[in-house]
Specification:
Blueprint lengths: L1 H12 L6 H4 L2 H30 L9 H26 L19 H22 L12
């Protein structure tokens, strides 16, 4: 749920960083946000499942969250760099507005890169907080 809400919020907030903000109707903007959020969820699921397949164990998420977080974030970043390059430079599916800060040399927008560092890290940290007591623990008062 944290991943869904975070990606949805991020997609809404970063709209002015893309040209669609000034060219699309409200209906088109809503579709773009929902479409991109659905894609974000698929990327998040694929990177997490890939990381778990490579280095997860049966005690995850109760142990080994940091081992899984690194490849998950890295996978999201690699996919984002490719996707932003392909969709802005090759296919022309979307374009950055003048407000989007970009990285030198590769030209990838800073906002989508930050999205794929911060949101998976936040989600995995929250999962750790939820699971820190282990699968059989009795919740303490106030939780």
């Amino acid at each position: 749920m944290i991943t869904l809400i975070s990606h949805l919020t991020w997609e809404i907030i970063q709209l002015p960083l893309y040209t669609i903000w000034s060219t699309a109707s409200p209906r088109e903007l809503a579709f773009a946000v929902l479409h991109c959020t659905a894609g974000d969820l698929l990327i998040a699921l694929a990177t997490l499942m890939g990381s778990l397949a490579l280095i997860g164990d049966r005690d995850w998420p109760f142990r080994g969250r940091l081992r899984v977080a690194g490849p998950t974030v890295f996978g999201g970043l690699i996919y984002t760099i490719f996707s932003e390059w392909f969709n802005t430079g090759i296919k022309g599916t979307w374009a950055y507005s003048d407000l989007m800060p970009t990285l030198p040399l590769i030209g990838t927008g800073l906002s989508p890169l930050l999205q794929w560092v911060l949101i998976p890290t936040l989600a995995l940290a929250a999962m750790g907080r939820i699971s820190q007591d282990g699968p059989d623990a009795v919740p303490s008062p106030g939780r």
